[in-house]
Write a structure and sequence with these properties.
It is a single chain. By secondary structure, the chain is α/β, with parallel strands linked by helices. It has 20 helices and 23 strands. The strands form five sheets. An eight-stranded mixed β-sheet has the order 1-6-5-4-7-8-13-12, with helices on both faces. A hairpin with an 8-residue loop joins strand 2 and strand 3. Helix 5 packs parallel to helix 6, helix 17 runs antiparallel to helix 20 and helix 19 packs antiparallel against helix 20. 43% of the residues are buried.
Length: 588
């Protein structure tokens, strides 16, 4: 039976590998059913003169050379892995009523064989012909199964594999072979398209957060159980993890992989369209981030109308929601900004504490609106609730604090309780694109630096006009593009907030006028362009100061790197005159 592979529903390349070549070194080929096309496998790994520069999707097919594949099962140790993993995946799939499974990272067949043993209809796919050949042999050896396999590139999975499946599994840290975000998104989109309407994707990866932030360690318990193999990173940075595998016979092999972070992977899944994601650590639902060797994500395609899955969230708002719900973002804003007012401040001097300048913005806006006691204020994008507490305590207002981040809202509620203001402030999980209040129900709409996260700001303004009573006030701030700014110069900022456009003073004036608003203060807009660059510069300075003092132990290195670059882009845009900021004050 050695060396042949059964084709499953696809006219693409059928891999065929002869593992009985001369001198113990395998010779691999792939033969097309349409004739003539032959690929020869490399006998040894080749990374060039500088291996850490090899960061291309697809290079893994050259890394899994036949001699490495022959040793792969000693790295896994099927029996020990079966014991450590238990029935985690089998029970998970059965619980969801799964019958058909596409194993897109078959490797040498461990999970494909387990799925067939458990009675699932399984199809096995992989990008490596050598791996598929070994998987086929293992199917016969370990379960007397004839695997239905196909060689496929995830980026074109629908081309190579036909049909829809109840579940797709991508296991064994395989997703890290994709080095560009475009490829990762494309692969996830292909997975999504091949799932039935209520299908699930199960995807795992190493705990790269711990490796990048605290150094490599492994319990050597779950995934790579072989006792005669040493596995450790030879090189690690935010864009590459180069793993070295040393076997008992002193043979050494390497794999170059992209170090996926947990929250980043969850965000990509959400942005592609998966509706609900659960993450396990080493098969445990409850875990501390530094403990697991591996994370396992279970992503559902089905759109669920649960209370915690609000249909009012657009793609842009969902992206912002995922970001602000992340532990990195919550820790960063609570620590660097001080956890009270997380918006741009008005600075009397460039080195002023961020919290003081941020509170001055609240005081300036409150003085402009001057709400009377008993006034109902709707705070859109209320964050940690600093403004809501100020308005309730200083002006006697009733505040409706609407915010998309459940994590921020919990912190808001706790601080309200501590200050004795829980009765005056109603904290609501929701989106300002679909405000959950009736027409003409509030006196003042208040917002600080939140509207930029919407992909439909006209809709936001229409919602505001709907809920405001006649004569009601709208007062808000927003980081914006300066009128006339070139979009190309704004691209670093747009990439940072995952949007195609920003608001501008001219945009807000024009749209508010269309909706019947009039200027409540002279000109309707008090511009403070210079404060934007000052504020983001101060936040950058404070980030670097706290990073040196231990912030890096609380927030991931990737997050801090991206944050510092983003802050620098905001500072540059402000100083170059491409960005602006200020206080809008209009009346309905």
């Amino acid at each position: 039976m050695s060396g042949w592979i059964v084709m499953h529903r696809s006219p693409c390349v059928v891999p065929h590998t002869d593992l009985r070549a001369e001198g113990g070194r395998a010779r691999g080929t792939a033969v097309s059913t349409t004739g003539g096309f032959v690929i020869s496998a490399r006998p040894v790994q080749e990374f060039g003169e500088n291996p850490v520069d090899v960061r291309e999707t697809g290079h893994y097919t050259e890394e899994y050379v036949p001699s490495f594949v022959e040793k792969w099962d000693s790295l896994i140790d099927w029996e020990k892995r079966r014991e450590s993993e238990g029935n985690f995946f089998i029970d998970l799939l059965r619980k969801r009523g799964v019958k058909s499974v596409l194993d897109v990272a078959t490797g040498t067949g461990f999970h494909s064989v387990r799925l067939l043993d458990a009675g699932f209809e399984a199809v096995s796919a992989d990008g490596s012909a050598e791996m598929l050949a070994q998987a086929f042999e293992n199917g016969v050896r370990y379960g007397d199964h004839i695997l239905r396999v196909v060689q496929a590139d995830w980026r074109w999975l629908n081309r190579d594999v036909h049909g829809e499946y109840d579940a797709i599994v991508c296991l064994g840290n395989s997703f890290t072979h994709l080095f560009s975000e475009r490829d990762r998104r494309k692969a996830l989109a292909e997975f999504y398209a091949m799932l039935k309407h209520d299908g699930i994707l199960i995807l795992d990866h190493r705990n790269y957060d711990a490796m990048l932030d605290r150094g490599f360690s492994s319990k050597h318990t779950y995934y790579y159980c072989g006792e005669d193999v040493a596995v450790e990173p030879e090189y690690l940075d935010d864009g590459l993890c180069r793993m070295r595998y040393t076997f008992a016979d002193d043979a050494v092999y390497h794999l170059n992989m992209y170090p996926l972070r947990k929250d980043y992977t969850r965000r990509l899944m959400t942005e592609v369209g998966f509706q609900h994601i659960e993450t396990y650590g080493d098969f445990q639902h409850t875990y501390r981030d530094e403990q697991p060797d591996f994370f396992v994500h279970v992503a559902e395609k089905e759109y669920r109308m649960d209370a915690d899955e609000d249909s009012s969230y657009s793609e842009a708002v969902s992206t912002a929601r995922t970001y602000y719900n992340s532990s990195d973002a919550d820790t960063f804003y609570a620590t660097v900004w001080g956890g009270e007012d997380i918006h741009i401040g008005l600075y009397d001097r460039p080195d002023e504490p961020i919290a003081d300048a941020s509170r001055r913005t609240v005081e300036r806006m409150a003085a402009k609106a001057d709400p009377a006691p008993g006034t109902t204020v709707l705070d859109l994008g209320s964050g940690y609730g600093g403004s809501a507490r100020y308005l309730a305590a200083s002006h006697g207002c009733r505040v409706l604090a609407l915010n998309l981040s459940e994590v921020e809202n919990e912190r808001n509620r706790a601080m309200n309780e501590k200050r004795g203001l829980a009765g005056a402030i109603e904290v609501v999980d929701g989106s300002f694109e679909n405000i959950p209040y009736p027409d003409a129900s509030v006196d003042v709409v208040w917002s600080q630096d939140a509207f930029l996260h919407s992909g439909d700001r006209v809709r936001v303004l229409k919602e505001i006009a709907r809920v405001l009573r006649p004569g009601g006030q709208l007062i808000f701030t927003d980081p914006m593009a300066a009128d006339g700014a070139e979009t190309s110069r704004l691209q670093p900022i747009l990439d940072r907030i995952h949007l195609e456009t920003m608001g501008s003073p001219g945009f807000y004036r024009r749209e508010l006028t269309k909706l019947g608003f009039t200027e409540a203060s002279a000109g309707g807009f008090e511009e403070h362009r210079e404060q934007l660059a000052t504020h983001y510069g101060r936040v950058l300075e404070e980030t670097e100061r706290q990073e040196a003092a231990g912030l890096a132990e609380k927030v991931s290195a990737e997050y801090l790197t991206r944050m510092k670059k983003g802050l620098a882009d905001w500072v540059h845009g402000g100083r170059e005159g491409d960005l602006t900021w200020g206080i809008f004050h209009f009346r309905r």
